[in-house]
Structures are given as structure tokens and as C-alpha cells.
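From: lab user (bench 3)
To: helpdesk
Subject: output format question, protein + S-adenosyl-L-homocysteine

Hello, I'm new to running complex predictions and I'm not sure whether the block I got back is the full result or only part of it. Here's what I submitted:
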Amino acid sequence: MNDTYRHKGMRQKLTELLATKGINNQKVLSALMYVPRHLFLDTAFEEQAYKNKALPIASGQTISHPYTVAFQTQLLDPQPTDKILEVGTGSGYQAAILSHLCNKLYTIERHEALYVETARKLNALGYIQIRSLFGDGYKGSPRFAPFDKILVTAGAHMIPQPLLDQLKIGGTLVIPKGSSHTKTMLKITKEAEQKYSTESHGAFQFVPFLEGTVGQAV
Ligand code: SAH
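Helpdesk reply: Thanks, we reran it on our side. This is the complete output you should expect:
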């Protein structure tokens, strides 16, 4: 697969649609326009890549809905100097978007097979600056902490303390949280050690944020 004018046209339409739905950060819209979402999917889904919907990827997971990716990115508000951790690499699409907007992007996935496949794909697409990690995102990445921002792209039933610990003071954690299938998008700001403020930003659906890993460390 490659990226053609036809794909760019479809991407333009999707980006315009997202702009009508409240995505108004120009840098986020530019990144959405730039990253070819169809290249993060199996060829079978090429025609659907620019519809505003979630689609299946390997290991029984899904690539997030484009609006969800746009919304989470806008809420995280990445800055060019930021060091960011994404939890839930999945297809790598959200990681690619973030990598255009920050200084250093780390992304962690619990499914070994998906981690291997996506790390390879990101490299092949030229995203060599993204650092892919295999592990349990509940533990974050003590090795590369602290982070300016952390984005969780799976639905959590609780806020993992390690993620809060690995934020810099002034840093933010964006995480969908709730006890049912539908999660509330939370933006948590670390005001000081052990002092946090939380904002709620509406309801979203996600695949579950599960503890532990599937497969062996490589
Ligand atoms: N950001 C992804 C979304 C994929 S869906 C994308 O753009 O495609 C969420 C992903 O989170 C899945 O791949 C799932 O395996 C992963 N995940 C769930 N729990 C996790 C955990 N504890 N640690 C790391 N990844 C996790």
C-alpha cells in the first residue's frame, strides 16, 4: 500500500469532519492530515480507513475511532518540548500522530505479537524516533520516566499509581476511566507531589486496559 492523492482526499474530508466536531487545534488537525491512517491497518480495511470509526487490528484489538484519537490528542495538548508516554500502542496510529507534535514519544503495548508487528511497521514507515516498548502499561516505564504527559488509549477501571508517580510536576495524564463499558475521559494534572486536579471530558468507548502482558519479553 502507498499513500495516493485519493487517500489524501479522503483524509482531508475526515479532517474537515473532525473540525466540525470540535477539534480546533490546528497542530492536531495538521497531524491528522499528515498521517496516512490506512497504512496502520490491514489492506482489507483500506477503503474504510477514512470513515470515522474504530476498526479491528491484530491480537483482537482495535485502532481507536479517529474522533477519539483527535480528542485525546487535543486534550493532551502535546508541546514540541514534551516527553510523552502512550499506553496501548495497538496499531501505532496514535503514536505516529503524537510523534509529530512532541519531542520524544514512548509507547508501550502488552501484547508481544502486536508490539513486534507495530514496532516493525513504525520503522518501515520512517517513524524511527518512536521508542516502542513491550510491557504492562499499568507499571508505566520507570526506565524512561519522568514524563511531561501520559496518554492511556485503553479503558481503565482505576488510575494506576505508577503512572501518576512517573509524571513531572505540572504534567498531565489523560485516561478513560469507569466501571462499565463506557468510560469517562479524565484529564489529571499533577499540581505537586501527591496533589492532583481532575477534569471530566465526556463518555467514550475503549478496549479494556488489562493488567499483565501476553507473550514473552524480547
Ligand atoms: N493507540 C492505539 C489504540 C489501540 S487499542 C491505536 O492507535 O491503534 C488499545 C491497546 O491497548 C490495545 O492494543 C491493547 O492491547 C493495549 N493495552 C491494554 N492494556 C494494556 C496494558 N496494561 N499495557 C499496555 N497496553 C495495553
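A quick orientation on your result: The helical segments are 5-20, 26-34, 66-76, 93-99, 112-124, 161-165. Let us know if anything else is unclear.
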